[in-house]
Write a structure and sequence with these properties.
Layout: H1 2-22, H2 27-31, E1 36-42, H3 53-57, E2 60-65, E3 71-72, E4 77-79, E5 85-87, E6 92-93, E7 98-102, E8 112-114, E9 127-132, E10 138-144, E11 151-153
Length: 155
């Protein structure tokens, strides 16, 4: 009889211990301890918004690889609140490195990719950048509510 009651007690104690271990790390720390995440965002292109290619390319989002190995970003998506979506083609970001996704047109190079848009994506008065894995899972997000200096340091 003691064995029957000890097993449920042991299971309850193990479950309680596991539950307390799961809550030990804050959610924000757990989300950014490693992996790929949003870095700094230049959501308001400096100067007057002229829609010139150089002005469009001065609006960008950094994506940082915080892992110890390169990450293939093919199929990853960057989205704003209105649904504008940039989907990465084949692009490797090295360990500890950052890639800037520029709004305008340009030639892909080390650390720089281009959305190839003719108009701005990020709203100066408030928006939310979302980084989404190829499987559709939200990997990271970063939002702002008003125009300040035109930049947001997400992490």
């Amino acid at each position: 009889m003691l064995i029957r009651t000890a097993a449920p007690l042991a299971l309850a104690a193990t479950t309680a211990l596991a539950g307390s271990l799961l809550v030990a790390a804050p959610a924000s720390a757990a989300a950014h301890q490693g992996g790929v995440h949003l870095g700094k965002i230049q959501y308001d292109s400096p100067g007057k918004d002229t829609r010139s290619n150089s002005s469009l390319n001065a609006e960008w989002v950094e994506i940082h690889n915080n892992t110890k190995s390169k990450v293939q970003l093919k199929g990853y998506k960057l989205k704003d609140n209105t649904g504008y979506t940039f989907t990465f083609g084949s692009y490797n970001v090295s360990a500890g490195k950052t890639v800037k996704v520029h709004t305008g047109r340009g030639k892909v190079s080390s650390g720089h990719v281009y959305w190839n848009r003719g108009s701005y994506v990020w709203n100066n008065t408030g928006d939310k950048a979302r980084l989404i894995k190829p499987n559709g899972k939200l990997l990271d997000s970063c939002s702002w509510t008003k125009s300040g200096k035109g930049t947001k340091n997400c992490h």
